Amino acid sequence: MAKDSCDGCGRTVTVAGGIANIWTFGQDDGSEGSAITLEFEDGTDHLLCYPCMEVLPDNPTAEDVERLEEVDAETSRLAEP
Questions:
Q1: Each residue's pLDDT tens digit in the chain (81 positions)?
Q2: How far apart are CA 80 and CA 45, in angstroms?
């Protein structure tokens, strides 16, 4: 799996899929990662880890992503505006 950083908190994440996983099957088939790219209604897209996705409000915007902070390895939070 490819490695990148979360657009919200900056933690290192693995991205499922890609050419590195094209010939693997079963456990390492590339279907699991620690981040996913989301496209928002405002037209922006962001690679976000699961802890960041969990704290975003409904109908998030790019400003919400800018407010994301890493708390520890498993949680994120939104900073005060």
A1: 567 899 999 999 887 655 555 555 555 544 456 888 999 999 999 999 999 999 999 999 999 999 999 999 889 999 987
A2: 22
Q: Who's near 36: CB < 8 A, 6+ residues apart? A: 16, 47, 48, 50, 53
Contacts of 52 (CB under 8 A, 6+ apart): 6, 8, 9, 65, 68, 76
Query: If you ran DSSP here, which 8-state letter would residue 64 be given?
Result: H
Token pair for residue 62? 């790019």
The whole-angstrom separation of Cα 81 and Cα 18 is: 36
